[in-house]
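Late entry, written up from scratch paper. The run itself happened at the end of the previous shift, but nothing got recorded in the book at the time, so transcribing now.
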Amino acid sequence: MTPAAGRPLTRALKVLFAGFAALALTAGALLFIGSEHTDKWFSWDIKPPLTAAFLGAAYWAAFVLLAWTARRRWWEDAQATVVPVLLIAVLLLIATLVHLDKFDLDSLAGWFWLIAYICVPPVMGLLIWQQLSVQPQAREPEPGAGALAPPWLRILLGLEGVVMLCAGVALYVAPVGARELWPWIVTPLTARAMAAFVIGFGAAAGWAALHPRLRGLEGAAYAYATLGGLELVALARYGDTLQASSAGEAAFVAFAALVLLTGFAGAVLSYSSRASSAAAGS
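Output as recorded:
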């Protein structure tokens, strides 16, 4: 079989993804585990605790995606991570600057958040620009590298991506009006913070739907399953916070469960294709 061409992932981007993974892991712990104590440990006080747990789950899902990407050898396998991560970073920076008065700038955590999100977009943009200048090299085929996602999975990802993008954009652009559709009470800042992640993961789902290789969506599948599972755990912990109609609550729970199942299906299919290919080649 003729080796395919690919761009090696630069060491700088690997280090960046690994650093982002460590930060996402830490932020997720502060928000998901310490969801009732954000006034002490986080960059701003987040109420109710369900909102903090929601954001913590999103950070932990991002950690899974970033940690997986940091171990990739090739740029083509990392591209699915770049779009959502950069999108989330830019949207969180804008939300931070718009609501800067809500942040605890008398604390190290507040200043760390502000400086980090000011620095992330330009640094990431510079490293991506450097990555694109790397010359392609021969790439030996990996087990299952050519396996394609089944049409039903791509359609499901596409539909879920559209739903998340629409909901996220509405919540981000008009948080006061759109928050009436959210299952629990949120402030403009927390609405935009959650919307940034919803938009980012919606973009990741859309990317996976448009790029059929199972290998390319493997990391996103792990992150997707993590997101759905942890959001269900957060809802179980703080279910009494929900204030929308029973239909709204049911829709939110059903969508989180669907995200979990979709991510799990993608992960299983990707693993199975690699195992089958490796067995056939042995």
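Strands lie at 4-6, 137-139.
(Scratch paper discarded after transcription.)
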